[in-house]
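Quick one, tokens below:
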């Protein structure tokens, strides 16, 4: 009846909003990871080509090389921080899914209860007819 349909609609909406959240989440993570990987690669390339250009033998070349190595270490540390952030976001997403699964169980229970009540009412109606 109407109750069961409302339950099904609510479940469909919940499923759709989870799917949407999951898609947005995956896209955010992908963009973050890509940007960071790109940044580390750029710095590594700069370091390599700079070391090649200067031959890294002159004092100036050595100093620039050290600076680039420091920059690269900082970028790598930053990448690790981002990875930790991504891990946190994934954990949060998993918690959200667990919550959604609980909600679905509650919806199922409610649907069964509604069906039982409806059946009981219909049976009562049949008896009085």
């Amino acid at each position: 009846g109407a109750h069961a349909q409302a339950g099904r609609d609510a479940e469909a909406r919940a499923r759709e909003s989870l799917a949407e959240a999951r898609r947005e989440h995956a896209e955010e993570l992908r963009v973050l990871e890509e940007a960071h990987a790109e940044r580390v690669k750029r710095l590594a390339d700069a370091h390599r080509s700079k070391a090649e250009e200067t031959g890294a033998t002159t004092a100036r070349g050595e100093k620039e090389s050290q600076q680039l190595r420091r920059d690269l270490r900082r970028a790598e540390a930053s990448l690790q921080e981002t990875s930790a952030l991504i891990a946190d976001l994934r954990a949060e997403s998993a918690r959200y899914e667990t919550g959604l699964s609980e909600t679905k169980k509650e919806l199922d229970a409610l649907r069964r209860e509604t069906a039982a009540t409806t059946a009981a009412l219909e049976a009562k109606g049949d008896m009085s007819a």
